[in-house]
Design a protein that fits this description.
Elements (H helix, E strand, L loop, with lengths): L1 H25 L12 H6 L2 H8 L2 H9 L14 H8 L2 H10 L13 H7 L3 H9 L15 H8 L2 H9 L14 H7 L5 H12 L14 H7 L3 H9 L4
Helix pairs in contact: 3-4, 3-5, 4-6, 5-6, 7-8, 7-9, 9-10, 9-11, 10-12, 11-12, 12-14, 13-14
Keywords: ANK repeat, Repeat
Organism: Ramlibacter rhizophilus
Protein name: Ankyrin repeat domain-containing protein
Amino acid sequence: MRGLLHDSSTWRTGLRAVVLAALLGSAGLPAGAQVAPSPAEVAAYQGLHAAAHRGDIELIDKLVAAKADLNARDRHGRTPLHVATFARQHAAIRALARAGAGLELLEHDRYDAVTIASVADDVETLDLLLSLGASAKLTTSRYDGTALIAAAHLGHDGVVRRLIAAGAPLDHVNNLHWTAVIEAIVLGDGGRRHQATLKALIDAKADLQLADREGRTPLQLARGRGYGEMVRMLEGAGAR
């Protein structure tokens, strides 16, 4: 019986993955929109990109003193700050920011450091970036979204709360006609972290009546997916 239950659970998990992949594909969303530096790219890095990835503060300071380009780009448009963010090199992030590196710059897929940290569920790096003056308000990604929408999609509730506190736009509508509230539902699994994400957005007074392109409200979308707890949360907040 235990084996049968395990097989059934595995089958349901696999089925959900297939359905979600189909949904993402139909919406034009790639499975991994952000691209971290590959091992081959890291091995080829020189100068500030190499120092940022390694967290080599002494070399960063030396290169800054030699007037190295703080916002130089690799083949994917990543700056040293992007690389340090992917690598979670906090001392490097501080050194680059102190030297004047652009905190708001976007790489080729139009992600900034804040969105990179948010998608990675990297609360510590996100907190650091925000403390250094990075903005939670930028429009990012090829979908004209925000870090908040990306984090809500993934159910990164701790990140969502920090972005809200930093002034992220609650009701931004991306070019798929989805808000953070909608993405927490339609791209979520209805589970604990997506529920916590939705609660954070409700508590922050996000607009619960903004509908998707077909006119479906968050409450209708949650009902359609059978997400009972989300339905109760939305109804309790007065959603229709």
